[in-house]
């Protein structure tokens, strides 16, 4: 079955991830690492959510195939997602050296049960470095683990629960497996007291604590509702901010909060000093103690984010609360508008605002961390949000996001405290919201409110791994939650609110370089061009044309990640076309590039070429000569008129831009007398020498369009090559219209989507010895074509200039008129001559 799939004779639908994984594992068991790599690589590429075990399988295949560097790269991916993954750390310990090996050794000390591996880890860390090591496993009724040390008489393990502490002395055990002539070691078991409060386990050598583990309480907490005498204060809203680190962000947050609540006497503030080690933060908070609207709670020891929030919630038994991160910036009136949204329906329990960094609620791009702006810019965006959505309007969410949660008192009384089951403060907010939903309360977003959020300042690079750990806990409690999130992302109910804000945004703040194109492969060329312009400091606005329900739709996007990101106009409606004209009319345009003539509607072209700015033509394809989407429907007179029209447009253009040598030669052929300007790095870029390839290795074919025309040309070429050279391996690099159909051919494998930064690795790991590019219609300047031209491999491609293009020594150019069998003859001759 492995050979059948690798050779393309098995039928396998892309969603069958586990089948690919099983086949890859079987290939490893059969000592076929190259095939195992291909299958596991395919598994990684088609999986919408990266899974650690997929990368682990690919790493094992790479290592067995003699490519340890790539194997370690995949282990880095695994450990970035799941730092405690046992198998990944074992392999990193065995395969790597230096910093990565030591990090794997430290990780294994926490979870490894294999004594031989633990001994190896201790040797890597140095048996005689005078540093003790320990591991603690937390169970409901006990903690257990081991301690290894080189200096000191004995060890002590302790559990602190509230004000009580229980301890046990640990004497060295010479018979314990980790004991040696230089290491004292012993195992331990200690009974946990029953408590609803968090507990702290610690291990000390001669009184000096070197290892701590914070543990959730092991008995249910009874959350008591407020007494009746608190009803007088029930209309107050309390903002709770836990504080630990980052003096600059903390100060900016608190100062913006005081500015925002100045006209709101019904809001008070509780600041929780979570035993911050930052002297500047302590001094700053101490200076706020005299404010009548502020109360400061100081934790004697660090309780973490959840512990600090829960302490404040116990301290505030009345009124609604706003749980606010200390790395946020808020605008005036935000609390009152959140309260208005919370009061818009009796079953609303939790309200989020929009923010730059807040998963569902992120603006302008959802589920991404957008740039954090200044207080002035945040205030301006908040004002736009308030003007764009009626006060009190809400959009339901799968759950709230904890950067800023407005929680009603009714919801708090029903749900209680945040769960202590999530490590170091990620997803406990989701858990709270899902428990609130079980109690009958909705989580919503108020799109009329916008705040800033830096995000991940507490844990920075650890966020991904913490989320991965805690997701496993959340999945056990709420197994359908992730599917709900995927459905929400696909439907995107907040898109209308984001668009409404952007339609009020003026684009006159900077000079825009506008590029108009369709989507697909030409869109890939345009995005590469946009990166080039952005690197040169030029603000770039993409106008992308795509099919809509009733006609073409034009989307406007700032290629640099700023506003706009959500603007879309239905060009079949006169009012929408006028709205597009109005938006572009407010923009300061420095230049316009037309990159996809076949897909730019005439009305958009007329709008852009009315003298707003000088315009260029980007030769990304043959749309001005033979538009692929229209050629079948155009007779000779219509085609001639099309070409004459675009010749006239080209003659009035400021420049004709060529993104590669082939485009330059193509432009010289079809536009004689016009100057063609190269915009790529040009011939000065020397090709990088490729790593040696086995002479019998496979050839690579770049798949760039995933179109029917390219796919038919690909199948015709595969068929012709198979007839002439049956044993030839073919790696299709990219995604086709039907990958499985292509892989039915013996020796053919399709990688799936490949991005430019990973192309060289893919070519190396598949052992590709030469590359064929450009099947299907003409396409110039595609990022993958530019990358392969620089990677040092022999390159074969169509010569769309009919002889005007000069290939590099050792490369092959053939005319597009050749039939598939003729191309195959040329290719086989070219391959055999090398």
Counted by DSSP, the helix tally is 28
The biggest beta sheet, please? Answer: 9 strands, mixed
Helical content class? 25-40%
Strand content: 15-25%
- Predict the CATH topology of the largest domain: Spore Coat Polysaccharide Biosynthesis Protein SpsA, Chain A
What's the number of structural domains? Answer: 4
Low-pLDDT ranges: 1-12, 225-232, 457-461, 682-691
CATH superfamily of the largest domain: Spore Coat Polysaccharide Biosynthesis Protein SpsA, Chain A
List the helices and strands and how they pair.
Blueprint: H1 2-6, H2 17-29, H3 33-46, H4 52-64, H5 68-81, H6 86-95, H7 98-111, H8 115-125, E1 133-138, E2 142-149, E3 155-161, E4 164-170, E5 184-191, E6 199-205, E7 208-215, E8 237-243, H9 247-261, E9 267-273, H10 279-286, E10 294-298, H11 304-315, E11 320-324, E12 328-329, H12 334-342, E13 348-355, H13 375-388, E14 395-396, E15 404-407, H14 409-415, H15 428-438, E16 442-453, H16 463-477, H17 481-491, H18 495-503, E17 511-517, H19 520-535, E18 540-547, E19 552-558, E20 567-570, H20 574-586, E21 588-594, H21 602-608, E22 615-618, H22 636-652, E23 655-658, H23 661-670, E24 676-678, E25 699-703, H24 708-724, E26 730-734, H25 739-742, E27 748-750, H26 759-765, E28 770-773, H27 783-789, E29 795-798, E30 812-814, H28 820-832
Parallel strand pairs: 8-9, 8-11, 9-10, 13-16, 17-18, 17-21, 21-22, 22-23, 23-24, 25-26, 25-28, 26-27, 28-29, 29-30
Antiparallel strand pairs: 1-2, 2-5, 3-4, 3-6, 6-7, 11-15, 12-16, 13-15, 14-16, 18-19, 19-20
Helix pairs in contact: 2-3, 2-4, 3-4, 4-5, 5-6, 6-7, 7-8, 13-18, 24-28
């Amino acid at each position: 079955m492995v050979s059948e799939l690798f050779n393309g004779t098995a039928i396998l639908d892309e969603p069958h991830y586990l089948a690919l994984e099983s086949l890859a594992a079987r290939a490893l068991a059969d000592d076929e690492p190259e095939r195992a790599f291909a299958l596991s690589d395919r598994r990684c590429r088609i999986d919408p959510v990266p899974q650690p075990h997929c990368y682990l399988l690919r790493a094992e295949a790479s290592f067995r195939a003699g490519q340890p560097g790539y194997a370690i790269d995949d282990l880095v991916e695994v450990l970035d997602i799941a730092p405690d993954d046992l198998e990944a750390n074992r392999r990193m310990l065995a395969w790597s050296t230096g910093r990565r090996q030591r990090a794997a050794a430290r990780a294994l000390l926490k979870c490894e049960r294999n004594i031989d591996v633990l001994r190896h880890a201790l040797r890597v860390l140095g048996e005689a470095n005078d540093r003790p090591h320990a591991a603690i496993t937390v169970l409901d009724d006990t903690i257990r683990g081991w301690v290894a040390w080189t200096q000191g008489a004995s060890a002590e393990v302790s559990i602190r629960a509230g004000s009580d502490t229980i301890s046990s002395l640990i004497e060295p055990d010479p018979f314990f497996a980790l004991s040696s002539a230089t290491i004292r070691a012993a195992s331990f078991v200690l009974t946990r007291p029953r408590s609803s409060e968090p507990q702290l386990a610690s291990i000390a050598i001669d009184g000096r604590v070197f290892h701590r583990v914070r543990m959730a309480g092991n008995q249910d907490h009874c959350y008591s509702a407020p007494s009746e005498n608190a009803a007088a204060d029930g209309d107050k809203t309390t903002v709770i901010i836990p504080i630990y680190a980052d003096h600059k962000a903390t100060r900016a947050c608190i100062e913006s909060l005081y500015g925002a609540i100045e006209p709101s006497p019904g809001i008070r503030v509780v600041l929780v000093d979570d035993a911050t080690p930052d002297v500047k933060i302590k001094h700053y908070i101490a200076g706020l103690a005299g404010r009548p609207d502020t109360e400061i709670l100081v934790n004697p020891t660090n309780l973490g984010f959840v512990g600090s929030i829960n302490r404040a919630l116990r301290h505030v038994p009345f009124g609604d609360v706003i749980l606010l991160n200390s790395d946020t910036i808020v605008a005036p009136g935000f609390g009152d508008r959140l309260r208005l949204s919370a009061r818009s329906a009796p079953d609303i329990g939790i309200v989020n605002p929009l923010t730059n960094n807040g998963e569902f609620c992120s603006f302008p791009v959802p589920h991404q961390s957008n740039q954090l702006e200044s207080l002035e810019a945040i205030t301006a965006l908040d004002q736009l949000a308030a003007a764009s959505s009626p006060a009190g309007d809400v959009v339901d969410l799968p759950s709230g996001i904890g950067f800023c949660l407005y929680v009603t008192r009714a919801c708090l009384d029903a749900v209680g405290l945040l769960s202590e089951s999530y490590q170091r403060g990620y997803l406990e907010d989701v858990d709270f919201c899902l428990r609130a939903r079980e109690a009958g309360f909705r989580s919503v977003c108020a799109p009329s409110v916008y705040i800033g959020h830096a995000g991940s300042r507490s844990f920075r690079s650890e966020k991904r791994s913490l989320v991965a750990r805690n997701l496993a806990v959340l999945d056990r409690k709420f197994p359908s939650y992730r599917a709900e999130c995927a459905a929400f992302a696909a439907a995107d109910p907040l898109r209308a609110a984001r668009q409404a804000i952007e339609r009020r945004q003026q684009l006159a703040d900077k000079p825009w370089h506008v590029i108009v194109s369709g989507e697909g492969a030409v869109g890939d060329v345009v995005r590469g061009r946009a990166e080039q312009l952005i690197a040169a400091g030029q603000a770039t606005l993409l106008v992308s044309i795509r099919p809509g329900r009733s006609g073409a739709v034009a989307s406007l996007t700032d290629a640099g990640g700023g506003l706009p990101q959500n603007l879309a106009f239905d060009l079949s409606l006169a009012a929408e076309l006028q709205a597009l004209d109005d938006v572009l009319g407010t923009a300061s345009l420095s230049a316009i590039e037309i990159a996809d003539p076949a897909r730019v509607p005439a009305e958009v072209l007329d709008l852009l070429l009315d003298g707003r700015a000088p315009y260029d033509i980007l030769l990304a394809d043959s749309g001005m000569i033979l538009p692929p989407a229209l050629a079948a429907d155009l007779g000779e007179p219509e085609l001639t008129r099309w070409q004459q029209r675009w010749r006239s447009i080209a003659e009035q253009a400021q420049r004709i831009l060529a993104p590669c040598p082939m485009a330059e030669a193509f432009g010289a052929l079809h536009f004689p007398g016009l100057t063609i300007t190269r915009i790529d790095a040009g011939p000065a870029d020397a090709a990088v020498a490729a790593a040696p390839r086995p002479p019998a290795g496979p050839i690579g074919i770049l798949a760039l369009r995933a179109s029917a025309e390219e796919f038919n040309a690909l199948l015709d070429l595969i068929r012709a090559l198979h007839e002439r050279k049956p044993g030839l391996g073919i790696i299709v690099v990219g995604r086709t219209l039907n990958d499985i159909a292509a892989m039915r051919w013996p020796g053919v494998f399709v990688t799936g989507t490949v991005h430019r930064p990973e192309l060289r690795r893919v070519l190396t790991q598949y052992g590709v010895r030469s590359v064929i590019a450009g099947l299907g219609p003409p396409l110039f300047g595609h990022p993958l074509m530019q990358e392969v031209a620089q990677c040092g491999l022999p390159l074969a491609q169509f010569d769309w200039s009919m002889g005007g293009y000069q290939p590099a020594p050792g490369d092959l150019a053939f005319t597009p008129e050749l039939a598939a069998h003729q191309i195959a003859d040329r290719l086989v001759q070219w391959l055999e001559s090398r």
